[in-house]
Every structure is written in structure tokens, then in C-alpha cells.
Design a protein that fits this description.
about 10% strand, about 280 residues, two-stranded antiparallel sheet, disordered N terminus, alpha+beta, single chain
């Protein structure tokens, strides 16, 4: 606990300035006379909050910060007064106490919003399992778009076009991505439902029949993107420390801020998983 508190304190100055060039156009300390205490609480809880947002123990909420910043329309860090002010406005608008302090109730509202934007999730809520697209509607990725040595991958044609526009924009806007062709490569796209079910049965590594029988990858609109990884962990490791490392990278942060421009929305628990909803 002491180490986490020290890390939070050391990170406070950084968080107050986080956000790059755009942050320079925002006064991240605006309202400090009102929101300084809440900003301090957020800076500490960012690393020390003990919770289980997905039924698994985690420390802190930094993993989700890029998506929270996008929702609040600010790049100011969690330890700033302006972030607390924007958070309070969001809380008030959603019928929550406008404390300006991040808490589990606020996260559940945010999580609900992010889930509602996934067409696949809303279909499942309605009791439907989307049918796979006709084979004629699928297109092959080229070798440079595929990550690692796996089976040839497919996506729905319009999704592949949107992905290519998004990847090109990311490489044009972020030098780190431009310099590393591995970043934003796809390691899973369309998955045939029967093959997916057989793999789950054989390997026993899927979340029960629900995932095996009805995965968003069956739609040809879900993509698993390489956004970096923590040494010693896989590209899709769900360990808290692994997901945190991914969301700290410039690739994920760019996606959190920009993917919606190209029709993609996130699955908050998996930094690599994005789904095309168009529009």
C-alpha cells in the first residue's frame, strides 16, 4: 500500500500536465479553488483504489483513464481540477451525486454507456445472436496487416476498409506507430462460429458455451489489434498489469481518442478488442 501511495504522489505532477499538445489549450487547473481536494483524491485513487470492476481484484483505475477522458471530453490528467470539474458535470447529467470524485458507481454508468455502443452487445441483450456474414461479404487481410504466424484472417469488406483508413491515420499522426509496423496489426478478425466452438471445446479456454456459440468475432466486425504488450505476457493477456501496460501506450491512447471517427468502439475490458459500428 505504501508503495502505491508513493507512486500516486510521484505521479501527481505528471497527471496534472498529461495530454500532450492539446492539454496546452486547456487550463487543467481551472477551478482549483473549488476542485483541488477532489483532484487530489482522484490522483491517489488512480493507483490505489481496491475494487473488482470485472469480478477480479484490481488496484487503481488508470487502465480505464483514456476512455474516461474521451467521455469527459478532456485530456487533462486525473489529478487535475478541470478533470474533477468535468467528472462532476458528467455525474450530475447521469443522475449521480456530482462529487467530482471517481468512484465505482460512476464507472458502472460509464461501462454501461460503452457497452450500449456495441451493436453486438445490444443484439445479445435482445436475445439475438447475429448471423455470420455471407462469405462474399468477407475480404482477406494482406500480410502486412496480420500479426504473428496465424491462420489467414478475414474481415467484412466495409470493416476492413474502415480499419485501413484508421491505421493510415494513426501512422500519419503518431510517430511511434509509424515507426513500428507491428502496432495495429490484427491478430484476430472474423472467426467461423463452428470453428470457434470446436476450438473452445478442444482447448477448454473459452468462457463457457455463450462465448463459443456467439462471439462478436462471428460478425466480421470485431478486430483484435496489437497495441503493445508487457514483457512476459501475451498480446491478449487479461492480467491487470498487462492491460494497464497496454493502455499506457500511445497506440491505445490514440485509439481511445480517435477510433470512433472511423466507426470503431472499444470493449473496455480488453484494450486490444474493437468493434465496428459504422457512422
Amino acid at each position: 500500500m505504501l508503495l502505491r501511495v508513493l507512486l500516486a504522489a510521484l505521479g501527481l505532477l505528471f497527471l496534472a500536465c498529461a495530454g500532450g499538445a492539446r492539454a496546452q489549450t486547456e487550463d487543467c487547473q481551472a477551478g482549483a479553488e473549488v476542485w483541488a481536494s477532489q483532484a487530489g483524491s482522484n490522483a491517489v485513487s488512480l493507483h490505489t483504489l481496491e475494487w473488482a470492476p470485472f469480478d477480479r481484484a484490481e488496484w487503481g483505475w488508470e487502465t480505464y483513464l483514456p476512455l474516461v477522458q474521451k467521455e469527459l471530453e478532456t485530456v487533462c490528467g486525473a489529478g487535475t481540477s478541470f478533470f474533477a470539474q468535468r467528472l462532476a458535470a458528467f455525474q450530475n447529467a447521469r443522475g449521480l451525486p456530482g462529487t467530482g470524485v471517481f468512484d465505482q458507481a460512476t464507472f458502472q454508468v460509464l461501462r454501461g454507456l460503452w457497452q450500449e455502443r456495441r451493436s453486438f452487445v445490444m443484439a445479445r441483450v435482445g436475445g439475438a445472436c447475429p448471423e455470420p456474414p455471407p462469405i462474399a461479404d468477407l475480404a482477406y487481410l494482406v500480410e502486412a496487416e496480420e500479426h504473428a504466424d496465424r491462420l489467414t484472417r478475414l474481415l467484412r469488406r466495409d470493416v476492413l476498409d474502415a480499419y485501413r483508413r484508421m491505421a493510415a491515420a494513426a501512422r500519419a499522426e503518431v510517430k511511434v506507430i509509424a515507426d513500428d509496423p507491428e502496432l495495429l496489426q490484427i491478430f484476430s478478425g472474423f472467426r467461423d462460429p463452428e470453428a470457434d466452438a470446436a476450438r473452445c471445446a478442444q482447448q477448454g479456454n473459452c468462457d463457457g458455451l455463450r462465448r463459443a456459440v456467439c462471439s462478436p468475432h462471428r460478425t466480421g466486425t470485431a478486430v483484435d489489434l496489437y497495441v503493445g504488450r508487457l514483457n512476459g505476457y501475451g498480446v491478449d493477456s487479461t492480467a491487470p498489469e498487462s492491460r494497464l501496460e497496454m493502455t499506457r501506450g500511445q497506440t491505445y491512447r490514440w485509439l481511445a481518442a480517435n477510433a470512433r471517427r472511423f466507426g470503431f468502439v472499444p470493449y473496455v475490458y480488453e484494450p486490444w478488442h474493437w468493434e465496428y459500428v459504422g457512422g
